[in-house]
Amino acid sequence: MTNNQIMFFIFSAVIVIFSILTVTSRRILRAATFLLFVLVSTAGLYFMLRFNFLAAIQLTLYAGGIVVLIIFSILLTSHVGAKLEQPGLAKVIFSALTALVGAAVAIAAILQYKFPETVIPKERTNIEDIGQALISTGKYGYALPFEVISILLLAAMIGSIIIAKKRKD
């Protein structure tokens, strides 16, 4: 087994374990911390694939931006150490059933798809082309997706504040 395979299995195990811990944790600050481990491990996989730009974006935007924003929003509220209520048995069974059906559909779709072998031409991309694509509003431009991401960040902050907000009843 090569070092790349070992690192792949380590990153994959960290992603699976901490993803489960993220959604099953009853403490919201711990769940946000577990999410940070998932996002950093995903960036590690991108680095292994030599997608350095995508890995850097993963670390700065998601691990550095969204998680810090969520943690900051949680710390601004007064329920940092409060536990979320235990879900009922019906919710647990329905959630597990939904996850299994979703996994089965995804696995079936992946196994049935015939992945064509493609040859990608080796082209050099310069920084000026990337910069022009980032500020362009035309075809293949990224200005609109960045605006959508800013709305996503706002929604994530509002959602985390609502979840962590102290109830007055």
Task: Offer a few descriptive terms.
single chain; 169 residues; mainly alpha; Four Helix Bundle (Hemerythrin (Met), subunit A); 2 domains; globular
Taking all Cα atoms into account, the compactness measure Rg is 20 Å
- Number of separate strands: 0
The named CATH superfamily of the largest domain: NADH-ubiquinone/plastoquinone oxidoreductase chain 6, subunit NuoJ
Shape: globular
Determine the CATH topology of the largest domain: Four Helix Bundle (Hemerythrin (Met), subunit A)
Quick overview:
The protein is mainly alpha-helical and 169 residues long. The protein is 73% helix and 0% strand. The protein folds into two domains: 3-84 and 125-164, NADH-ubiquinone/plastoquinone oxidoreductase chain 6, subunit NuoJ (Four Helix Bundle (Hemerythrin (Met), subunit A), Up-down Bundle); 86-115.
Chart the SSEs and their pairings.
Layout: H1 3-24, H2 28-48, H3 52-76, H4 89-112, H5 127-135, H6 143-164
Question: Can you put this structure into words, describing what you see?
Answer:
The protein is mainly alpha-helical and 169 residues long. The chain is 73% helix and 0% strand. The mean pLDDT is 83. The longest helix has 25 residues, at 52-76. The protein has 2 domains: 3-84 and 125-164, Four Helix Bundle (Hemerythrin (Met), subunit A); 86-115. The protein has 6 helices and no strands.
